[in-house]
Amino acid sequence: MCRAVSQMSLIALLCAGLLAGCAQVRKVTYPDDFVYLEQKQVKSEMVMLSIYLRQIDQILLDDSVISSEQQLKIVGLLSSITESANRLGAGSVETNHLLIDSRIDRFKRDVDIALRDAGANPPNYYSLGRLSGSCVACHQYR
């Protein structure tokens, strides 16, 4: 019994060392400008993007006239979308997710346009539809 416990402890220690060691190995095996995105980070950011877009949709569906408070809420949600997209990479950043790398800049441009239009006076929410379209285009085969 004691031997089984010590074996399990050793296995747990080795697994923990391997997991912590992977990050260290990536530091020397990938270029300095390479961003390694953990699967759980990608999933978390995608969930947040979905939540933000649903909140925007809810505002737009609830009222035919958008108040200035709701406009500010939409602009804030779009800013949060920008932050999430930045965490997934943009510009010349290369990650281990080729699909994200190939589409994130276009998505960010769509967000920037929607943010500009939503903050205008009077606001224009037409470009918000492109954001959902961007998600659908990227996830159509998933």
Count up the helices: 5
- How many strand elements? 2
How many domains make up the coordinates?
2
Helicity, as a percent range: over 70%
Approximately what portion of the residues adopt beta-strand conformation?
under 5%
Series of H and E elements: HEHHEHH
In the predicted model, the low-confidence regions spanning at least 5 consecutive residues are none
Strand order of the largest sheet: 1-2
Structural class: mainly alpha
Q: Report the sheet with the most strands, covering strand number, pairing sense and barrel closure.
A: 2 strands, parallel
Shape: elongated
Report mean pLDDT, rounded to a whole number. 79
Cα distance spanning the termini: 47 Å
Taking all Cα atoms into account, the compactness measure Rg is 21 Å
3D structure, described in words:
This protein folds into two domains: 30 residues; 104 residues. The protein has five helices and two strands, in the order αβααβαα. The protein is elongated. It starts with a helix and ends with a helix. It has 142 residues and is mostly helical. A two-stranded parallel sheet has the order 1-2. Helix 4 runs antiparallel to helix 5.
